[in-house]
Amino acid sequence: MTVSTPLSGVNQAFKGILLILCATFLFSSHDALSKYLSGFYPIIMVVWARYVVHTLLMAGIFLPRSGLRVLRTKRPLWQLARALCLLGTSLFFTTALLYIPLAEATAVNFLAPVLVTALSVPLLGERVTRGQWIAVIFGFIGVLIIVHPGGDLFTPAVLLPFCSALFFCFYQLLTRKLSEIDSPTTSNFFAGLCNTLVMSALVPLFWQVPSVVHGLMMLALGACGMTAHLMLTQAFRFAAPALLAPFGYCQIVFAGLLGWLLFNHTPTLTTVVGIVLICLSGLAAAWQQRRK
Q1: How far apart are CA 235 and CA 221, in angstroms?
Q2: Cα 270–Cα 276–Cα 279 angle in degrees, nearest 5
Q3: Given CA atoms 29, 34, 245, 136 in this order, what sign does their dihedral have?
Q4: How many CB atoms neighbour CB 39 within 10 A?
Q5: CA distance 36 to 216
Q6: Are 19 and 235 in contact (CB under 8 A)?
Q7: pLDDT tens digits for 2-28?
Q8: Contacts of 36 (CB under 8 A, 6+ apart)
Q9: pLDDT per residue over 207-238, tens digit each?
Q10: Second label for 198, Cα 20 to 30 Å away, from 138, 167, 173, 287?
Q11: One-letter-per-residue 3-state SS of the chain
Q12: First to last CA, the chain
């Protein structure tokens, strides 16, 4: 018989925090690779590489264990809509990286949890408290500070990460509904396979032969995404979402560091203030949800 002790609980929480930090670093590395590769190849090709490698890795891990049962779903149309929302997020965000620095694009994309709070009222029939609405308002204020009139980011291109956040919001809402019906493995594998098929139909129109180095980067792109998702899933096995939520925002910090190291971009003080507001609004919304 195993006796649970406070120390073992701390160790479990520490494992969860370490895993989510590694996951956020890999997500930021994935985005940095996408930004670099999209300077040489069409967006369609970069996103295709991400999904095809991701899906092949998932197939190698889960098909030997579960066979085609992993694709059985009770809501195929919901799964298809969820997959296309994820694809929309990938296309809009990767395109945004052509015009917007990594940290700023990542910060605007982190509006998704705030949008989930706002849209859960009409779409899921949930009740949102006054505190949650305040968090939503402050999240949008954070974006307005980042893209303030007269600033470098006050261009139509800033709509790209906002559209990415909107698609990711719908993706999260569908994920919440499907979590009551299908397993996470089924949902993730279905999305990867669906998006691989869609992008494989499009990529011949945009194909360019990559160099050996860029080909390896494309493999790393998919591997980073796949490994990050696995680490994220494992993190929630060791610690509660409420504990891990603040550490998810480290992705913006890692994006800023990689943007500085790889692309020589340093966020302005105004941008940092806006990023902090977005982070605080997301954390406040999560805290309010936990109280409910």
Answers
A1: 21
A2: 145
A3: positive
A4: 10
A5: 13
A6: yes
A7: 444 555 556 777 888 899 899 999 999
A8: 217, 262
A9: 999 999 999 999 999 999 888 888 887 887 88
A10: 173
A11: CCCCCHHHHHHHHHHHHHHHHHHHHHHHHHHHHHHHHCCCCCHHHHHHHHHHHHHHHHHHHHHHHHHHHHHCCCCHHHHHHHHHHHHHHHHHHHHHCCCCCHHHHHHHHCCHHHHHHHHHHHHHCCCCCHHHHHHHHHHHHHHHHHCCCCCCCCCHHHHHHHHHHHHHHHHHHHHHHHCCCCCHHHHHHHHHHHHHHHHHHHHHHCCCCCCHHHHHHHHHHHHHHHHHHHHHHHHHHHCCHHHHHHHHCHHHHHHHHHHHHHHCCCCCHHHHHHHHHHHHHHHHHHHHHHHC
A12: 35
Query: pLDDT tier at 1 (50, 70, 90 boundaries)?
Result: very low
pLDDT at position 37 is 96
Cα distance between residue 216 and residue 46, in whole Å: 12
Q: 221, 34 in Cβ contact below 8 A?
A: yes
Question: Angle between the 250-263 and 6-37 helix axes, to the nearest 10 degrees?
Answer: 40
